[in-house]
Amino acid sequence: MKHPQFEALLFDIDHLGHEERIALEAHLRECEHCNVLATSWRDLEGNLISAPKMEPAAGFTERFRERLVVYKRRKQERLTLAVILAILISLIIVTGFFGLELLTFIPSVISLLLKSINGLVLLGGLLTILGDFVLVLLEGITQSLPAGLLLAIAAATSGLAVIWMFSIYRFGFNTLRKE
Amino acid sequence: MAEYQRSNEEGLWIERATQGDDDAFAQIVESYQVPVYNLCYRMLGNKEEAEDAAQESFLRAYRNLNRYDPERKFVTWLLSIASHYCIDCLRRRRLKLVSLDDLLPRRERGTSTPGAEANYLQLENAEEIRIMLDGIGEKDRAAMILRYWYDFSYEEIAESLSLSISAVKSRLHRTRREMADRWNVQNKAFVNGGRQDEASAI
């Protein structure tokens, strides 16, 4: 065996076979260079193995939790930003592709808007007529019935309304709350 | 590695953490903070950077937990993440602009009086080893640390550092050789320094 081969064995003592071990021991008795190297390595290896284990400062896990919260918040922010960007990009692309076609829709959109406003105005007129009719009806009733009967009808209606509301509260809401 | 053998509890934590339970992952952090921090400290050589690297390693593990293969030892996977992160840190550090003072060999810094030199040479062995580790390449350093502080097999080192087994063997051999030489030179210098001090005292 040559000198470099012995050096290789020197640093791999744990994995040596019986014959290799004997050959190395014989070489170390003769070769001062390898002997010095072996001694140095033995000292160094001992120090490496026995070096104290370093521990982090107390509260490492709590600090990690804080870091995790920051990480998650940033991730959420990035995600939100990505979604907004994606929507914007999609809008730009859609506008780019269908821009001209969209322009042809604009007049019909305006006419639709005008029709809707017209409909709303008509609805308003109908509601006003209905309100006037109800007022005339009430006036007719109050003029044809005596005041005492009117008061009795009002009291009875109020009483019924109170009973109705109480029954809704008692049976309706409580049942829902239990569920 | 015997102290970090997988327990049933650990398997449960991993499973729960994979499903998004942060408390379960906090348990994992609590269990492995010392080995991860120790590795980062040995790799980077200072406490602040080691703390940051250890925290970042856990965060990376958290992000990639769904990629963890339960067939592997969890601690091997975790230390592999920490090793890669520290290797990246060291590479970034090397790329930063260095001052002229940084370019000087460590021993030439400070005063050069024999007393100060003797004090320097009398640093604790642990500190000497740290300095020695600082002087070797990132992957070689990681391989040495995993081998001697974590008792990783050649296969586990190869898996952790994405190297072949023969590459691990050759890197370890080269590093051991370098370190043994340096240790020898350092000890000789210490002995000679002591003799010079004695002579000057006489």
Could you describe the 3D structure shown?
The complex is a heterodimer of chains A (179) and B (202). Chain A has 179 residues and is mainly alpha-helical. Among the domains of chain A are: 1-52, no CATH class; 63-122. Helices cover 88% and strands 0% of the residues of chain A. Chain A contains 5 helices and no strands. Chain A has helices spanning 3-10, 18-30, 32-50, 60-144, 147-178. Chain A is elongated and about 140 Å long. Chain B folds into 2 domains: 1-96, Orthogonal Bundle (Rna Polymerase Sigma Factor, Chain: A), CATH 1.10.1740.10; 99-202, Arc Repressor Mutant, subunit A (Orthogonal Bundle). In chain B, helix 1 packs across helix 2 and helix 9 packs across helix 10 (165-201). The model of chain B is unreliable at 97-122 and 197-202 (pLDDT under 50). Classes of the chains: A mainly alpha (179), B mainly alpha (202).
| Percentage of β-strand residues of chain A | under 5%
Order of helices and strands of chain B: HHHHHHHHHH
Share in helix of chain B: over 70%
What's the alpha carbon Rg of chain B, rounded to whole Å?
A: 20 Å
Q: Can you tell me the CATH superfamily of the largest domain in chain B?
A: Winged helix-like DNA-binding domain superfamily/Winged helix DNA-binding domain
Shape of chain A: elongated
Terminal-residue CA separation of chain B: 52 Å
Shape of chain B: elongated
Helix-strand category of chain A: mainly alpha
By DSSP, the count of extended strands of chain A is: 0
List the quaternary state of the chains.
heterodimer
Straight-line N-to-C gap of chain A: 88 Å
Biggest β-sheet of chain B: count, sense, barrel?
none
Rg calc of chain A: 47 Å
On the 0 to 100 scale, the average pLDDT of chain B is 79
Total DSSP E strands of chain B = 0
Q: β content of chain B, as a range?
A: under 5%
- Separate helix tally of chain A: 5
What does the largest sheet of chain A look like?
A: none
